[in-house]
Amino acid sequence: MKTSNQNIKPITTKINSNGNIEIGGCDLVELANKYGTPLYVFDEATIRSVIKSYKDAFKDFPKVNMMYAAKAFMTRAICKIMQEEAFGLDLCSGGEIYTAKSAGFDMSKTLFNGNNKSYDELCFALECGIGTISADNFFELALLNDIAKSNRQNIRILLRITPGIECHTHEYIQTGHLDSKFGFDLTQINAAVELIKDEYKNLNLVGLHAHTGSQIFEKQVYSDEIGVIFKEIRRIKDKYGIDLHEVNLGGGLGIKYTEADKPISIYEMAQTVTEALEKYSKKYDIETPVIFIEPGRSIIGTSGVTLYTAGSSKQVPNGRLYQALDGGMSDNARPSLYGAKYTVEIANNPNGVCDKKVTLAGKHCESGDILAKDIILPEIEEGDTVCFYDTGAYGYSMSSNYNRLLKPAAVLVNNGKSDIIINRQTYEQLTESDVIPDRLN
Ligand SMILES: *Cc1c(COP(=O)(O)O)cnc(C)c1O
User: Fold this and answer.
1) Which residues have C-beta within 8 Å of that of residue 257, sequence separation ≥ 6?
2) How many whole angstroms separate alpha carbon 211 and alpha carbon 80?
3) What pLDDT band is residue 176 in, cutting at 50, 70 and 90?
4) Closest Cα to residue 303, out of 20, 49, 1?
5) Does 365 participate in catalysis according to the annotation?
6) Which of 54, 73, 113 to mutate to test the pocket of ligand 1 (most atoms within 8 A of CB)?
7) pLDDT at 62 over 80
């Protein structure tokens, strides 16, 4: 069965009686007029449908728990949806922890990840009642044990390991290959386990954690990963007599940005995972541990679109046609960071004849600020509402104030209603952290 990560558009997308694109029963041109652009629009039905697919796909395997990787897109409203859906949260900074806590999220269902968690962040995480910490390196183990000792507490930890698996995705979003900044190399696991066992008495090692990368299209990655982790669990049991009962497989399932992308469905992923769990439990003779998966992109990516208003254009003599939009690398860093490609439509002209090659440029003072290069669209007119699909993940969350552009608003749409979930930043907010030292006044 097809799942929403295999669609380019949110499931409620259609052309309405005004001849405009609508999502969640809301006309995109009306949304652009009402809230201004750039605007992130999130379709609640798509988010819920992906979540339902994950639950369905793993329902015969009760030992699987879902955590949403909040870094893909996090606001307090999103935390509420995840809480309602009984998902946990995978968090990777003090700011993400604060957001979850302040949304009233059940912190026992959170995991703290990251390759350089600070002392303050770790203290804050514990203060907030974080469920588990994925310990990434030797420095962190020592730091954590010190904090736990002075708090007279025991901390549940997973060891983040680097399984040595290459997934065929962009170099910047591979994480599980050997030359990675994340986690313990397989050759360092013994040393880490010995430290925990002999010295760091306040650390309670419950399992292993790996994450092989993002925008994964191949099933094989998941079964290879499970093979590596289960082999380590067996080895640790034999060598140290320690039973590890929890395994976090990370996230990474890909989505379809353009027709060229062919991600597997959530069901195919679940089947691969389930089969590999059975196979390797038998092979290594271990009781199947409790499994956690932490998808980010595949939960939120397809649900979100970005709306821009078309502004100036430039025809380079004998060269490209540039059409400028009112946002750019500050609201979507992915094209300039990874060369990411998107599917684009004109919300007020979805049926126009696609016969123009155009390069959609942002408004930043940077030649690399191109949102879509050489794509084929209908002729764009000034004032048109341009819709980029699949910007739900790593769009807002990577946004910046470069050139002092204001961070855009985000709305959640459902059944013809639109609700603000992030207000557009104001000029006052933009400058509120600035301080002018007295001597300059
Ligand atoms: C980023 C990340 C995820 C989520 O990855 P997606 O590709 O967005 O699903 C999950 N786990 C860890 C440890 C991560 O760093």
Assistant:
1) 8, 340, 341, 342, 343, 389, 390
2) 25
3) low
4) 49
5) yes
6) 113
7) no
Tens digits of residue pLDDT in 293-342: 999 999 999 999 999 999 999 999 999 999 999 999 999 999 999 899 99
Name which of 435, 365, 367 is nearest 404 in CA terms: 365
Start-to-end Cα distance in the chain: 65
Distance of alpha carbon 145 from its chain centroid, rounded?
Answer: 29
CA distance 377 to 395: 22
Q: Which residues pair with 306 in a beta bridge?
A: 40, 388
Q: How confident is the model at residue 175 (pLDDT cuts 50, 70, 90)?
A: low
pLDDT of residue 69: 98
* Cβ pair 225, 293 in contact under 8 A: no
Residue 305's beta-bridge partner residues? 41, 389
- Does residue 170 surpass a pLDDT of 70? no
Give the span between the Cα atoms of 71 and 392, in whole angstroms: 11
> Pairing state of beta strands 344-346 and 385-389?
antiparallel
pLDDT mean across residues, the chain: 96
Residue with CA closest to ligand 1 atom 15: 211
Structure token digits, residue 244: 């590890």
Per-residue pLDDT reduced to its tens digit, 204-247: 999 999 998 899 998 999 999 999 999 999 999 999 999 999 99
Which pLDDT value is given to residue 179? Answer: 81
DSSP class of residue 229 equals H
Reported as type and span, the H/E element at residue 197 is helix 189-198
Q: What is the pLDDT of residue 165?
A: 85
* Residue to mutate (ligand 1; options 167, 297, 300; most atoms within 8 A of CB): 297
CA distances in angstroms from 5 to 48, 400, 411, listed in the order given: 12, 26, 20
What are the pocket residues of ligand 1 if the criterion is a CB atom closer than 6 Å to any ligand atom? 69, 71-72, 90, 113, 211, 214, 250-253, 294-298, 393
Amino acid in position 101 = K
Tell me which residue of 22, 53, 37, 15 sits closest to 255, measured CA to CA: 53
- Asked whether the beta carbons of 337 and 397 are under 8 A apart, the reply is no
Tell me the average pLDDT across 44-52.
Answer: 98
The token pair at 370 is: 């191109």
